Amino acid sequence: MKIYIFIVGIIFFGSFFFGDIAIAEKPTAEGTIDYLKQHTSLPEANFEAELIPAVIRFLLSLFAVFLTGVALYAGYLFVVNFGNEEEIEKAKKLLMWAIVGIVIAAISYALVQGIIHLDFSRGA
Question: Are 14 and 72 contacting, i.e. CB atoms less than 8 angstroms apart?
């Protein structure tokens, strides 16, 4: 039962982080990369400037979802083990480290966003 609550919590809170991901349609001949390159005026993607930050943001979001699930599980341990001091101490430590991890993930996300938006094209 505990694992089901944990999984449902991860799925629920994960929907907040990954709610903007679209489900792709069935590929057609008109949907291929070569066709789009020839028939559209879309700019080429810059690997360093777009893909790497997107992967870092995705991993940080995934980490935050996992830590939110850990925090929910720690709260569950608090409620279930009301009279057991050992388990309550375990839940306190788990919650403390989950909060520390969420703060680290938020700071990392802010740093990545700040570095991405720096303008290196201007001279010093």
Answer: no
Cβ within 8 Å of residue 39, ≥6 positions away: none
Encode pLDDT of 112-121 as tens digits.
Answer: 888 877 766 6
Whether 95 and 75 have beta carbons less than 8 Å apart is answered as yes
- Cβ atoms 30, 72 nearer than 8 A: no
The total of structural domains in the chain comes to 1
Ranges of the chain whose pLDDT falls below 70: 1, 8, 11-49, 119-124
Structural domain includes residue 88: yes
121 in a structural domain: no
Please say whether the beta carbons of 109 and 122 come within 8 A.
no
